[in-house]
Design goal:
It is found in: Cytoplasm. The chain has helices at 4-20, 33-45, 64-72, 91-96, 110-129; strands at residues 51-60, 79-83, 99-101. With 136 residues, the chain is of the alpha/beta class. The chain has one domain: Alpha/beta knot (3-Layer(aba) Sandwich). Helix 3 (64-72) crosses helix 5 (110-129).
Length: 136
């Protein structure tokens, strides 16, 4: 991530998530949509059995409680969340995903999307644990 302030926020949530269980953040080299898409598909092939969520503006929007509930239904199955680069995700990546989610109908940079997703994943874990992080 080029923006060090957003990177610091992501690092904070990554550390929090790692304390809660296994969490891994993988960055792939940027490229055009097709070459980047192929690298994503190659990485997904190494994670067979994981539920994949492609983050795309045309995906479904969930509340934080709904995301926590959806992740709770995995019962230990790994989850992989995919954020595309500057030009989004290839059709092949979107088609390979189990679920397409949108953070918002608005468009964000991939760095802001990563920060928002990291926070929402931490929030989902906090909801599942009954912590006071999430107020409803």
């Amino acid at each position: 991530m080029k923006n060090r302030h957003l990177a610091a926020i992501c690092d904070d949530f990554t550390k929090r998530l790692q304390r809660q269980g296994k969490f891994e953040l993988i960055e792939l080299k940027d490229g055009d949509v097709d070459s980047e898409g192929q690298r994503i598909l190659d990485a997904l092939n190494k994670r067979k059995g994981a539920r994949t969520y492609a983050m795309a503006e045309e995906g479904a929007t969930l509340s934080s409680m709904e995301l926590a509930g959806d992740l709770g239904k995995l019962h230990g199955q790994p989850a992989v969340f995919i954020i595309g680069g500057a030009y989004g995700l290839s059709d092949a990546v979107k088609q390979s995903a189990d679920t397409m989610l949108a953070l918002s109908p608005m468009t964000f940079t991939h760095e802001i999307a990563r920060m928002l997703l990291c926070e929402q994943l931490y929030r989902a874990v906090a909801i599942q644990a009954g912590s006071k992080y999430h107020h409803e």
